[in-house]
Structure prediction request, 368 residues.
Amino acid sequence: MTTTTRAAVVESGGAPFTLSEVELDDLGPGEALVRMVATGLCHTDLGVASGGLPFPLPGVLGHEGAGIVEAVGPNVTGVEPGDHVVLSFTSCGGCRNCRDGHPAYCATWLPLNLIGGRRADGTSTVSRDGTPLGGHFFGQSSFAERALVDERSLVKVDPEVPLASIAPLGCGVQTGVGAVWNVLRPRAGSTLVVLGAGAVGLSAVMAAALTPAARIIAVDRVAERLALAKELGATHTVNAAEADLADALALLTDGQGADGVVETTGSVAVLRQGADALAARGALVVVGAPPFGTEVALDVNGLLPGKQIVGITLGDSETQTFIPALVQLVKEGRLPLDRLIGTYPFAEIDQAVRDMSAGKTIKPVLTF
Prediction:
């Protein structure tokens, strides 16, 4: 039977979140009902809510959920009622990339997670007064007190770790950490540059601090965020509002350039600066996502010394192994995620949006 719950609904592109009673569909094969305890707020949620992506609205967003399993549908074997779970993206499980351990590059990733708003079979997971709403966002739509979740979005986690402290692992944190660990893989003595000190960039800084990288350079335009980056492991910082970025990076790298760069801002101008700052055989990981169709000009000859530019989605993570490892690091205090988080009651979601947009809170987490 259907489940009635309260959700934050976006009525149309640019409209605020409004709390509304909705109905969750019956659990289908490979689905679970999760009582939400916390969910992170991400810039992707705001981009979709603004109408910037073709997600069907009215709809229920949210894709950094954490909660407790209440019921499971047919064929669910990985979790059972009472389990604590972090929610991440979903995937088909059967395509070549899924089988190879790269589910973030699933052949059906876009419709299943970001723009479809429905299950793979076209049916709706959430409705209001009998009318289907956009849902199934990242296989979860966790801006609700209860969520119908794909089993492949569920990651069972240590019940001793408070769920509000690990909700952001499902997207932003694993993206920043994965860019460093799964793609750049710094060697001893490496120099890394992180462009942008938001939630993803600071996650990359924390990840880099757990590697043998010798120099970790954080770049932003907000002094307070650069100060936090230093506390989280950056060895150097550059305030791009006060210094020429190219000159500053050349000075800090002794003119050799950076072995690795993580670009989180979504600015093509910053991306180009990051590419120009690479050392021979260096790699730039593109994390920030500007609007679809955005292009960037590059000096082709500048790439010939073995430089690489690599796009990444969700840290190129295999969630069932990656997220529990991050949870353990949070538990041990080695990944101080709490330094990024500000908590808000679910009913104050619009205040959380305002604070995030104004830069007052790096990673808002809604609590239920």
Remarks:
- The chain has eleven helices and 18 strands.
- The longest helix spans residues 172-184.
- The mean pLDDT is 96.
- Residues 63 and 101 are 21 Å apart (CA to CA).
